[in-house]
Fold these 4 entries.
Entry 1:
Amino acid sequence: METLLQDIRYSLRQLIKSPGFTITAVVSLALGIGATTAVFSVVWAILMNPYPYAAPDRMVHMRLINDAGRNRGNGFTGAQLQALRKSPVVEDAFAEDDWSLTVTGNDVPEDAQGVYLTSNAFNFLGVPAAEGRGLIPSDAVDGQDPQPVAVLGYKFWQRHYNSDPSIVGKRIQLVRKDYTVVGVAGPRFAWGDADIYVPLKVTQDPVPAYYVGLRLKPGVTHAQADAALNPLIQQFAKDTPDHFPHEHFRLHVVGLNEDFLKQLGGTLALLFSAVLLLLAIGCGNVSILLLARGTARQQEFAVRGALGASRWRMVRQLLTEAVILSVTGAALGVLIAYKSVTGIVALLPQYSFPHEAVISVNLPVLLFSVGVALFTGIFFGLAPALQLSRPELAQVMQSSSRKIAGVRGRTMNSALIAGQIALTLVMLAGAAAAMEGFLRMAHVPLGYDPHDVMSVGIPVHQGTYPTWAQRGAYFQALRDKVAAVPGVREAAISSNATPPTNGSELGFEILGLPPSGGQKARVNLVGPGYFPILKIGMLKGRIWDETENRNAAKVVVINETMARQYFPNGDALGHSIKMPELKAQPPFVLTAEGAGDWHEVIGVIADKRNDGLSKPVQPEAFVPFTTLMFMATQVLVRSDVPPLTLLHAVQLQVSSVDPDQQVSGQVQDLEHWISTKQEYQQGEMVTLLFGAFALLALLLAAVGLYSVVSYMVAQRTNEFGIRMALGAPRSHVLGIVFSSMGLSVGIGLAAGLVLSVSLNKVLAQWSEQSARDPLVLLGATLILGVVGALACAVPAQRASTVDPMSALRYE
């Protein structure tokens, strides 16, 4: 222990005596460890500890997958919930329904996201309430009206009641009905992202359908659950066909986090790989700096060796210095990570990770940082320690030579710098590919004009406007009131057609042709003003008028892709198509008479984006919104001013039609609607983070190259003096300095190019051309070459201006 303390004290003195070396080494490690810790914080929270629920590994969602591998919608009745609970593979089950609620008390009703849960749900999920209690079985007995009680979501409680615990026991009014607040959900209880949880009434009525969550019994695999539950689900589909897909499907259960893993897992793996590369580059810098610093300490080690110090003793001393550097770098890196995590979380796509996850630098992350620090200190300090602990005693003692380790030292430096160059080029190529892909997606032709347009969601309360005529008149009145707001240029109903991802994928038939189960189109329910508001081009025919819209005329407008794919002769106009899935499910879905009958094609519009920004345009059909009406709609508004500035006026107009009616709490203009799409946010995140990591890697590689060249110049100062004393020009010395690194840099660039091409499959997800694009590779190579040249230029210039007499006395 005493000798260890001596090593630590001596190491600290040595590091303090060389502040430039120490600061450079610590910062190199801090950047690498800080970035690695920040990304690992995200990985840990999302992939390893996302949920606070009881036995989350056995909780599953039920997915119905069609033959094309796509997830199809479904719902389960109260009787089916009971049947699922009795399955031999199921431990327990709960049901959920989502609906927008209204909180009154302001000049306009406030929208609140309500989640209706069966009364066993809080016990099922197993998260204690922050205040009061959750829902309990007595709050809702099957077949009976539930108690008027509510549990507030934690964030809603903070936002709406300023975290006042006295709200428990008080009454709040939701859609003109009084509820008693019995509790506040825990901070990590975010099921359904609800503002308010209320009991769900479950009956034997076969019309209402709910989401059902399951917990499997211990030891039951997902494959076993699929096999056991699939016959039951198929029977449910026969009993209540309107709640299940009208095509062949199979049941597949998925874990709570499986969807998020598909959405974000690859991205996190890519970013974590990037920061590990950054850490490797930073650690390489430390190795280079340790070797370079040994130039000034060669005599010290020779003297210690001559006095009897063992090689292990010197290795331990050098490793102690390396570990101190790495631990200090880790401490600074953790501080950087604390600041960086918030920024990374802000860049994550909003719905790509579970909102129950707490992304922070916590104990497991700190332990990871400590482990990384010890590993980097020992692993990357070991090679320099072994080199420096074997001095050439006779040469050093006789000539006071500043040489560090002869050929071995130069070879190691060359290998380290080549490795740094190669890894940096991979990161630059990856960042350039990500940027290329993101810019291509961000500037893809949309086929519509999103500027100065907002989409106002309007949820309709249960039990209101129960007939087709009432609901159609109500939606039209809302549109007319919104259109009358000063500053609004145009307004139109768009029930499910807000691009760039819109429409309900339904099967259709073409009159005169045999039915085909593979014919799918995105069916949109809109008013006639939809097309001029978005400035969508008309190629052939016409749009239906207001009278046809009110009467739910059996007409349809299709897009260019659908016309080209299904009417290749260019004769789409006048043909008729039928969409059998346009069926009523009162009181939730109301249809006009004959909605599923034949509709005449009266127009063809130019293609616009309807399946995201990066996927091809899909066949698309538009019918009057009165053909089928949900218990919600949207109003598109084009304005002469920034549209969100008119939102409050729009809310007032909506509530003037129905004083209990609110607008959605998530109103956005269409430009932000695009930027909040997951593919856009994910591309933006990868571009910014990968770009930042690549720039840091470039900086670290430049520092490493500068250190190696400076070390080489210091070694050969005497040689340069002799050459210049014998008449060698400055250009000759400059050439020697640059050529000494030319081979290492060239090998590094070649290796980096090979790695970039080899990793094309990984990088290709961010760009169609990816890292194989010659322009990407050429640009990355040029940037790295220029930075490398600049890093060599300063010590080369210093070598070429050395005074020959001073150089001859250098030893």
Entry 2:
Amino acid sequence: MAKANHRTPKNYDGTRLTTRKMSELLPTVLEQIGEIYNERPDLIISAWSAIIGPQLASMTEAMAFTNGVLVVKVKNSSLHELLIRQDKPRILKSLRMKFPKVSINNIVFRIG
């Protein structure tokens, strides 16, 4: 388990140093930032266009992510069928690889 960073007491009168090296603090801080990033499901919506690709991104839009279900609006019924039948497993795999700490159970495509 990582060592927690503690502040030096206000009226510290001891013999040990009150300063810390950056090399001691930086790995812990970066790890915490990475955990926060991976645990934020709202980032899935903003990363949708990068995951789906530039061709399909112009015809789709991620609308919501709740309870492990990503809701995506598509422009037409042909694209809807293509995504459900062929691309859904690939997209789910890509999402799970990019966001390993977020539980992604399903993608629901809606025509709109």
Entry 3:
Amino acid sequence: MSRSILKQSSKIGFFALISRFIAFIREWLLIQFLSVGDTSDIFFTAFRIPNTMRKIFAEGALSSILVPAFINAQHKEGQKGLHKLTTGALVIIETIIFAICVTVFCLSTNVIATIAPGFSPEKVERTAYYLKILMSFILFISSGAIFASALQSQRKFFIPAIAPSILNVVYVASLCICLYFQLSVTVFCYFMIMTSIVFLLLHLVAYFKQGYTLDRPDQQTSKEMRTIIFQLIPCIVSVGITEINHFINTGFASYLTSGSMTLLRSSFQFVNIPVGIITASLVTVLLPHFSKLHLEQPKDLVDHLFEAIKFIIWTTMPICFLLYLFSQHIFETLFMGDAQALSKIHLAQSIFTAYLVGLLSFSLNKIFLSIFYALRLTIIPMIASIIAIGINYFLNQELIQNYGAAGIALASSIAAISQTLFLTIFLSKYLHLNWSASKWFDFFARYLVQLTLCCTVLWTLYNAGYFLIGSLNFNINLHVITVSQQTFLHGFGVWFWAGPLSLGYLGLLYVTRKYFKISLTYFDH
């Protein structure tokens, strides 16, 4: 079963990797279109609310609650139970979201003034205007997410996995059109609505093509929907902690220099890459798996959780080192072609590093939350999340004074680490975890030695390559562009040698694992 989990999550991860690659192009085009200043801060602040609702109602809380609920409904009533619950979820949840959208639309100016108190009245008005256009984005995205959850509960992962890539392709195409024809930000906002409609249509067609239908809800469906809504409220807090913290960060960052909010967003986007590719893909498979185990083999939950945590630690830490080592190159590539953005590389790098401090916790928290939601427990993670949100708010006040935007990012990382500790304590008591300390010590001791040696090899080869290229002196004019050693040190050319070097480093970790006798059942069985 462990190999099956890895196989399924690898397929999802592959599509997530493609999506992230397209997302990098999207981010570069966004910098070209909006630059790093007032315009970008205004757009990203306006998009913050519908995007936050997307991450809660399309990627986080909603799917975490719906997938176990769909599995439970099918367990009791077969496919008919799934069909009825899908209909009930569409009617009730979309009615709630529609009401939220109308409220935000009517109070858009007040909403922006609240989340970005440092904005001038003119910036507040411009941001509120974009927000009114973008609010309908979540209606289509959340509807598609309900169909996606139904598909995932039946282990139909293909369309939910590939949909973000298709979405990013439409996103990139929209940006290219806006740049080529020099269209306004307003037009781009309408393009964003179009991408959300594409997302809904993809899942709607996939749902019906798999032979599923929409049946009329009954009394049992109403009872299940009350349970879902009751669980959804605390789940929004626990799953949406990152987004809630982003709102807090936005409020503090609105007082900083122009572009700070954009840099915070861009930095977190890249730190979140391994979370999106590895952890989110694994959780997509584990959530229905844990839900079925809870119903059929509850005694096996602890062992599966143990292996999931080991796998996340083993895969996340090497990538954390890679991101730190290449942080400057990432932003040199992302900001390439925009002088205003290039002048802020060192600030972006410091924010990025501060977020990296919490990378492992960002990943582990998703694993912990998946087990809670498989057990249909939402209050405990909500309490842990509220504590973490309070820590983030307090640390923002303290750290922003000395460290600016980097202090805001560091506060988020420390809050995530705090959430990990709280969830671990709660989970240990609830599941009566009796993991042997010697098992953990043996794993960490062997892994730290392996990781240290592999990172040393990478660091040595990177510096040798950087020195070798820097010692060369060439300047080739290719009519369209000029290629020099700087192209391969501080331009896009760096990835032609750093990319293979990184893949070799990850391959070295995988190959040497058996020599250090590190057991990971996702690979071994």
Entry 4:
Amino acid sequence: MSRAALIPEERRLEAAPPPARNEPARKPRATSRTSLLARGEPMVWLNGGALAVCLCMILGLLLLILWNGLGTFWPVPAVLIQTVDGKHYLGEVIRTESYLPEPGALAGLPPDLRAKAQDYLEQNKGRSTRRLIRTDNFDLTQTHHHWVSDFKIAEESLPEWALIIERATNDGRFNGTPKAFLVDGIEIATEPAEVWANFNQFHSEVRERFLRRKKIKKEDDGTVSRKEEEARLAVTAAELGHGPESPEYSAASQKMKEVNDWAAQEHARLNGEVASLDKQNDRYQIRLTTADGTEKLLPLADIVRAYPANQLSFGDKVGIFASRWWEFLSDDPRSGTSEGGVFPAIWGTVTMTLLMSLLVVPFGVLAALYLREYAKAGPVVSAVRIAINNLAGVPSIVFGVFGLGFFCYIIGASIDGVMFRASLPSPTFGTGGLLWASLTLALLTVPVVIVATEEALSAVPSSMREGSYACGASKWQTIRRIVLPRAMPGILTGTILAMARGAGEVAPLMLVGAVKLAPNLPVDGVFPYVHAQRSFMHLGFHIYDVGFQSQDSESAKPMVFTTTLVLILLIAILNLAAMWLRGRLRKRFVASQF
């Protein structure tokens, strides 16, 4: 039998070639086209474009703050401008802008100058340029700035001996040229170069005596006054607790008498030292002439810094720039917080943020642990989670009002009534302070910590919990040794977010502790060393105060950018420290995750 006969008939029919037909060949089947929208490419481009726009906005804002913040303390030349109406202005040009003059702006000009001004405006299509001159000398002119239009300028120059003087008084800067240097009321130099040389010779020692005087009044004299107040409060406490006829009251009164006698001697000694320092400093004065010819006598002790603005080399400018930055970061505010330093605000911001973090993390983590590991799913737990999410959307000023009413007026007043009765009616804890501000911001940021901690706990694989239970560990042992260490990076993420939000809040702090000016830090050598009941300064509140409450808004505007730059850098440093710790914890436990 042949091999073909063994093949089934059906397979032979399938393998046989089809019969020839005279039909036309079929067209190839059209390939189906997938729409561009189905591939997702438009959404990719849309998402990428949105990300690029967000990055450009953030980088643009940071560059604006960086440019204006870093340029605040760079010294610029001082220009002397004489206008056609005979006025003189000496100072720094801080802004230039183009504007449209009013119709009657040329009416007061002489005929020849009016014609020139009209030609100038016609060439510029009716617009002119004007400059804002920081003339300072507020104690003489009652203003800090003047606008000067270009068509009103008769003469402009850069005086060789134009001095920019920064004063410690609230009058701000003073601009003028040196006229004479006086010692004991006698002019020992009248030439500008000689006056400047004598100023450099004596200013450092005068400034050293001024700082010593400031230390005596702020620290030494304050310590004596504090001991007097403590003795007085001890007498009041003994009277309230034991009565005016008790031995305790008599002992406290005797102690107060001894303290008062000692304090009187100390005050007399300290006042003598201050008077001696003042007498030595009062010997040295400098006379200056303003742009309009007015003379002003300035004590050297009132001068923080002075420099000839039009004689500075690049190295001199760098030195002044660095000196101003160091003063800004390490000194107290002056001139109504629009000049000087912000060290009390930096200290208050850092301390409040760290204290807030120490308060919010334990409560947030414990709440998240209970909701995730212990609580059974049900309407109550769902309601709690909804409440937490809604709490995150409550305006921050509401937390400030709650903190003022609950922490200050209820808890703080109760503490005063129990522990500080002798100080009443003056409140100790019954008013805004560092502790109440930290607790208020802890309430504000606790939803962030709870949500982040829950997400971190849910990310721990269930197999780790089951393996721990299989080895005989209890639930708490599993949570403490297995779950929490591996969730710690996520918990720190929540802490970072809470720190970033809390450090930049301002509205609640205006009600529960932050003040415009508090140069004395709430820390000293008396137990408990850090007094959390005292008010404090905050960089965010300082930005608001300088930007919107300053009498010299134009001079304060650069300080707003500079303080904002410091606040951003401070938050970045705190966040980087937390991120570094989170990275170390992640490396430690990543090898054991599966």
